[in-house]
Amino acid sequence: MIGIDIALALCGVVALLAVVRIARGPDRGTRVVGAEMLTVTVIAIVALGGVRTGSTSTFDIVLVATMVAFLATVSFARALTGGDR
Q1: Helix (H, G, I), strand (E, B) or coil at 29
Q2: What is the pLDDT of residue 2?
């Protein structure tokens, strides 16, 4: 359990740094990278919370959130390139 607690604390630090990156990003691309980092970190926090509590239903939530995050990444990339392929 100590390892999970350390991982949760580190994920909290990474989430804070991602928020700073979103707030201070000089351009849209940097803000998108910060948002993606924040999304992945939140998913990791949910997964670690599921491991810590022993709940199996959180892994379904993590799976759906990961698929949504992938689609968001694709749409952000499409928006940044102006829809070009």
Answers
A1: helix
A2: 94
